[in-house]
Amino acid sequence: QYWGRHLWARGYCVSTVGLNEEQLRKYVKWQQEREPKG
Fold this sequence. Notes:
By secondary structure, the chain is of the alpha+beta class. It is 37% helix and 26% strand. It has a three-stranded antiparallel beta sheet with strand order 1-2-3, with no helix packed on it.
């Protein structure tokens, strides 16, 4: 979810300042791969 220029997801906060869309997509994919399955 987005608030201002930050992305919050399950305890993680990432500033989107200076990130392009591709970098942000890679980060989201990386976070999803780290989540436990089940």
